[in-house]
Amino acid sequence: MGVRVGVLSLQGDVGEHVLAFERALAASSTGGRSPSVVPVRHAEQIPDLDALAIPGGESTTLSRLIERNGMYRPLAEFDGGVFATCAGMVLVATGAGDPRVRTLGLVEMRVERNAFGRQAESHEACLDVAGLAEPFRAVFIRAPVALDIGPGVEVLARVPRGIVAVREGRHMAFAFHPELAGDLRLHRLFLENLGV
Ligand code: GLN
Question: Going by C-beta distance under 8 Å and a sequence separation of 6 or more, which residues neighbour residue 124?
């Protein structure tokens, strides 16, 4: 059996994440013909996964749904790799400065939600990302930034406003949306980091 990737399916752009990981796995050596990317709606599914994508959406809503579905503990204790984007990056942090968001503490960083202000609801930028030979076209939608990071956190990309991509051990978090870019290099980098 190949690697099992889940996509947290409570809210947000779940379909794009499933598709992007199916494609990234199909292109990797062990993905072969039977990559398994599963929507995750129940707490019991989480411990069986090798990796989990936490999509963008609204981190306050996602946090509430995580609590309501009894998923907080299994997520906070998850020992596979997490691929977190935008609202997902807010959730995996150790602090978000917003009492409506109970962060999971998987990546040691403090984030600021909606860090680019109202005049920049969404924008694109060409980013240099550590580990990629060519810049990545990043789509930002009401994106957070990381302000402080712990000593074990590697900065993968930053913009003048702050840090927008990080890795800590098996986990990666992006303030932007790699699943919308039509470019699977960050998914592959994540899978390679897991040894897939
Ligand atoms: N602003 C949202 C939040 O803080 C994130 C937006 C997104 O995921 N595209 O939850």
Answer: 137, 138, 139, 140
